[in-house]
Amino acid sequence: MTYTSSTVRVPDVAAVPRHIAIIMDGNGRWATQRRLPRVAGHTRGVDAVRAAVEACARRGVEYLTLFAFSSENWRRPNDEVSFLMRLFVTALEREIGKLHANGIRLRVVGDLAMFDTRIQDLIRRAETKTARNTRLTLTIAANYGGRWDIMQATRKLVDQSVAAGRPVEVTEEAFAEHLAMAYAPEPDLFIRTGGEQRISNFLLWQLAYTEFYFTDTFWPDFDADALGHAIESYAERERRFGRTSAQLEPQSQNVDSLPC
Ligand code: FPP
Questions:
Q1: pLDDT-derived band at 8, boundaries 50, 70, 90
Q2: Most buried of 121, 123, 191, 231 (most Cβ within 10 A)?
Q3: Within 13 Å of residue 187, how many CA atoms lie on the same side as its CB?
Q4: Which CDD domains does the record cross-reference, listed alphabetically (predicted)?
């Protein structure tokens, strides 16, 4: 299992983040500024997704996680929700061959039961086709919510206890094993475009010690250079994980015995 808890053990830190998680915000405002319908911003947003995937693969980022549709996005007008679903299907059908050819593994996390079965089948086929790729894992969070994730992991622990006829031991790592992204390390860098400074029910558990980067740039304008600036900002951060600056060498020591 790749997941290690940053609150149990200090993870290794490098200048290039292993895992970047992004809230792609500002599509609607990008379009409105140009007197275009909001959905035109989503269409351009797909181009920015492609640019981000390419830039991450080039820079050696191992995991890129994109918040495409939150549990709360169902509250949007029906026609915008339907447009986003169609856009997702079209993008997946069109890009999956290229992702595979470039060694990219695709995963989709979220409550997929809410999507129609055609979309669910397409997702499963794309995941299966790319399952053995190792260059970059691209995760699309769709109908995802951090609280949903924590609840579904809790239910699995409860189910395990019921099946065992006794309460299973509840540790951070036993719990995190049931999170939807148990296959990935916690994000090193969280980026939100579009000017808002909130995490909007994204990876609530995993963002405990993630570095945050907020930019006013709207998602359709977030290109390889913009990603480069975010990574440069990250490289300048001192990631202490509860320690003092003086303790920072050597990295990767177990925090069990350290005061917070
Ligand atoms: C937020 O901007 C964006 C979304 C809710 C959808 C993001 C979807 C894409 C970028 C395209 C599909 C993705 C994939 C992975 C193929 P907003 O509409 O909230 O913008 P606003 O805040 O300016 O209104």
A1: confident
A2: 191
A3: 27
A4: Cis_IPPS
Domain span at 65: 19-237
Does any domain span residue 102?
Answer: yes
**Which ligand 1 atom sits nearest the alpha carbon of residue 67?**
7
186 in a structural domain: yes
- Does ligand 1 lie within 6 Å of residue 220's CB atom? no
41: domain CATH number is 3.40.1180.10
3-class state of residue 116 by DSSP: coil
**Ligand 1 center from residue 232 Cα (angstroms):** 25
2, part of any domain: no
Confidence check: pLDDT of 257 > 70 = no
- In this structure, are strands 136-144 and 63-70 parallel, antiparallel, or unpaired? parallel
Protein residue with its CA nearest to atom 8 in ligand 1 = 68
| Residue nearest atom 22 of ligand 1, based on CA coordinates | 26
∠ at Cα 172 (12, 179), nearest 5°? 90
Q: What local confidence, expressed as pLDDT, does residue 2 receive? A: 61
Residue 80 within any structural domain of the chain: yes
Choice from 22, 23, 24, 39 to test ligand 1 binding pocket (greatest atom count within 8 A of CB) = 24
- Beta carbons of 18 and 185 less than 8 angstroms apart: yes
